[in-house]
Every structure is written in C-alpha cells, then in structure tokens.
Protein 1
Amino acid sequence: MAKNKTETRKDEVRFTTSNPKEMLHGYLAKRVVKTWVDDFVDEETSEVVSIERNEVLFDAGKLIDNDLQAQIMFHITAGDITEVEVSNQRRMAFLNCYNGFTPYMVTAQIDLKNRKFLMYASSVMMAHEIATDFIELNYTGGFYISQIKEFSSCTIIEENKLKKLKDTEFGIKAIEEDTDDVPKEYYKIEANITIEDDREYSQLFIVKAKDVESAKEDINHWLKQKFDKEAKEKQEISPDFNISLKNASTIPCSYTIEKDFSMAYHPNADEC
C-alpha cells in the first residue's frame, strides 16, 4: 500500500491571479482584504482628515469552489480588490506580527568559539536575522546560530562605546573589549522604583558595568533621562524618584548589538 506523500511548504505553489479559471479548486493563500479611505472634516481645524479602513472579505485557507469563485469575481468587478493569492495547499493559520521590541540573547559559534549577542528584536526569527547580519559584517570565517533566548519585560541600557574593529591578515575582525581598562560584566538587575514617595513598581534591566553599584548608577541615570523627557513633553516638572535593587546577577554575554541596528528590521519600517 502506497504511503501518502508528506507535504510541506517546499511543495507549495503560490500564484496571484484575477482569472476565475486559474483560481478554481485552489485555496486562498492569505486573507482577502478590502481597503478604502474615508475622508471627513475636522470640526476644530476644518481640515480634511483621511482614515484608511479595512474589511476582511475571506479568510485564508478557504477552498475556492464555484460559489466562492463567484463571490471573488464580484468583488474584483466592483473594484474592492484586484486579485487574490492562491495556493495548492490549505494553510489556515497565519503568523502574528509583534511590533514591539524585546531583548533576546543569541548564541553563535564563530571559529569554534561560542559568543553571545544581546539585542532587541520582535521575534525569534528576527533575532536570528539580526544576529546573522551583524556577524557577517563584523567577523570572519564560518558560524552557526545555536541558541536564541527571549528576555521578556526587560530593558537594555546600552553603552556608547561598544566595540572596535581591527585589520588582520584575514580581514576586518571584531574586538570584544572596551577601551576602558576596568573589566566589566553584564548584570541582570531587578530594581524597585519609587516615584514621589507614593508610586512604586519593579523593572528588569540588563546593564554592562564594572560592579553592581556602577550598574545602579547607570540605571539611575537612564531613569532620570526618561522622566525628564516625559516631563518636558507634558510640560510638567520632572518627578523625584528613588531606586533600590531587589536582585542582581551576572549573565554571560560577548556583545550588545545597538538598538539602531535592530531598527532596520522593525516591521513598521516596511510591512509586517
């Protein structure tokens, strides 16, 4: 008895069409969405404001039978849509996009040595992509990604000076050391923050510092900048605050990839 063939994305065939014969008996590869713009006049400014509206017409994974084919062609004729994407496979789920940034630790083996990179990303896949990009630009030789770990609800306090590059006989190579002679470690710190003696909350930080006390000073400086900026935007006085450390531990890390580098991969920059 012959076994049924196991299908994967490697076997998938996708195409975009407005031809009713081509789409018949295929599956919708992604949601079919009608998009239009509503204009209205702002009563206070008398300016015309445009808002984009969206309506899901059909969900992904639906079989395009004669009935659905007729509905799709109706919306194409009406100008609601111009075409649909069709697949030979029924894929009903879709990957959700998260627009926020979360710290991730990526472990890569480069020249037979494990190195750990701390960065911001929106997903495991994005963290893999950012790390690959960064390693290709700053290291030589072969490498592979061996582990990716998320640090949820955590803030990375970045240093201004992170890395130098030097020329070697093999090309440009990253040097993972500071210009400061004092050795530093990466600390994961849970801090209690009290604002104006009445509001209190906890926050996790990752800081590169020579000791816990220096890390606390960096957190204090980061919070002051944050509160000053928020107060300026609201035209208020920046609040007084105090911090106390609940937990502090070192974590292994070779390098912090700057947030600006990760921003090139932010889903809002293009599309999700």
Note: The radius of gyration is 26 Å.
Protein 2
Amino acid sequence: MQPWEGLLNYVLDRSRGCRHVTLIDPGKQSSEVATRRAIAAIEAGSRMIFVGGSTDTPDEVVHETCKSIQEALELQVFAASQDPTSDEELWKVPVVLFPGGAHALSPAADGITFMMLMNSNNRKFLIGEQLRGAPYLQKYGVEALPTGYLVFSPGGKVGEVGQADLVESGQEDLVRSYAITAHMFGFKILYLEAGSGAQTQVDRESILAARETEELCLIVGGGIRTREQAAYASSAGANWIVTGTLTEDAADMDDLRNKISEVVSGIQSSSS
C-alpha cells in the first residue's frame, strides 16, 4: 500500500530510524500463506514487504502474491478506519518487488528495487534483465527504486546464479569504491547482501565503509536472525534490515510475530 508521502520518500526517510523489511518468497509458499505472514510481520513491526527472491518464479505467481497482500492491507486499513482506537497508518506499508529477474514482476506492487548487481561478471545482471523489465514497469506504473546491489561472501544462491565476484570481509576499500560508484550512477539505495540463509552476515566494517557515502540509503540483508545480529547491522549504519529465512522457518504465526518483534526490538535499541 502506497505511503502518503510517496514510496521513494518513505524509503529514504531517515527521521524514522532504522526499519525492518520482511521478504516474502512467493516461490516457497502459497499466496494465502504469504499474506498471513505479511500481516503478522506488520503487526510485529515490519515497515515494508519485499516480494521475490527465487530466480525461477513466474510472473503469475508473483502477481497473485502481491495482489493478495495488497487486498489484505486494504481490508486492514478499512477496519482501522472504523475503529477510533486503531491506527490506519500502521497498515500503510508498501509492497515492493525484489525480483530474481524480469520474469518476476507484477502491476499490483507499489514499487520495485530496480537493481544492478554491481559485482556480477554477467552482463545479464548488470543491464540485461533491466532492459527486459523496464518497458513493463513503465507500462504499469510500478515505481522504480534505483538500487545498487552488492553481494558479499558467502553469497548463497544469489551469488552463484548472479555470477558475483563476492566481496570478502576486510575489503573495506572496495566497498567504499562500490558505494561511491553507486552514488555517481545516481542510485539512491545500496543493498548489501550476504545471501539468503547465510551463516554469517555482512560485517560491521563493510557497513561502516558504505555508510561513508552519506547520500545512500543502506539496506542490509542475509544471515540476520536474532535481535543481536539486527542491532549489529543497525548500529553500523544500516537504514533497513531485511529478514526472509526467519519468516519461512517460523513454526506458526505466533512464532513469526515473536521472532520479528525480537529483531525489530534489536533495531530500535541500536537506533535510540
């Protein structure tokens, strides 16, 4: 659901402190389960929903998930508007595509992380998929969030499929160069990714190095499952923390709420 101030302004707004994103992979769950998880995540404090992840999920599956989540959010906003003790703004949370390629798009999304995989060795992920997807996004009015995407070791599936020259711990000068380059390209966002389900997260020194390019909004994801890990990334300068595997591993909706509440609590403790 589109925030009142516009999607890009919402994402870039630092006055709200570091915030949490829940990543929903439509290739790993039905649209019904995805929607229940998205609603539970928002109740627990998530302030944006990413839809995507898998590299082989077709448009129709992605669209059905986006559409289902948006419809549920509209119902929540309406219900809150009828209850003077409820806050409609709680449910005005954007649904943003985090695509594995131009095959995984939907007009029901509020926007898309329009990404260049900056350390890929394959032209396809530098500009090829973007060329395929841009006309579709323009046709349906899906807002593009200009994003540099940088994959760190261990990298996981995204590093493998994206043929990324992984950034290693200790390469802070390289990270600084990528951040400066992202800014000079006109990107507003730099996404630092350790890979879905990674055993280690992006290290603090790398986040600090990227943060030196103050103009960029930093999104950090991969390997973050606990309050402490979220606080670690937030305190280093992340503006958004993404978790996805945590959501998929939750035993039920109560467990999901508890896990995300813990992560959000860690973010808030480091931002205060």
Note: The CA atoms of residues 29 and 248 lie 9 Å apart.
